[in-house]
Amino acid sequence: MEETSNRYRIEAPAVLLVGKTGNVLPPTFSMMPGKNSKKATLGNSLLGSEEVFEASNDPNSVTKFARAEKLTIDGRPYNLVDTPGVFDTVTPGPQTLAEIARVIGECSYGIQAIIFVLGMHAFSRLVQLPSSR
Questions:
Q1: Distance CA 105, CA 10 (A)
Q2: Domain residue ranges in the chain
Q3: Right CATH number for 4-131 from 3.40.1190.20, 3.40.50.300, 1.20.950.20, 3.30.43.10?
Q4: Side by side, which strands form the sheet with 67-73?
Q5: Residue 27 and residue 11: Cα distance in Å, rounded?
Q6: Which of 16, 27, 58, 98 has its CB surrounded by the most CB atoms within 10 Å?
Q7: Which tops the pLDDT comparison, 59 or 79?
Q8: Is a pLDDT exceeding 50 seen at residue 5?
Q9: Which residues contact 26 (CB under 8 A, 6 or more apart)?
């Protein structure tokens, strides 16, 4: 297992990116050409970069360990944290949840926000329900 200090240091309030592995939006909604909209892609968009968090079109999680990067919003420092995807088909659930719990425990400056990244398909049934009444 790689050392925490080699992956990140959380030195400001954290903004966590949490979501299901392989959560994608239709290509017309993609924030960055050639990449599906997942947690890493959203994080890269917020940071103004395509290369900070590893993003791929693979339905399996490429993020095995949480990673944090510095983010400034209105002059205030934050750490944007990309977490491993939940419900990964390759990495066991308890291992993923333990990594997320570990990184939460390292947020000594607190957690400012948790952003749940969901694909459009997660809402399609909810949107259809009211119209069928």
A1: 11
A2: 4-131
A3: 3.40.50.300
A4: 67-73, 76-82, 14-19, 111-117
A5: 35
A6: 16
A7: 79
A8: no
A9: 120
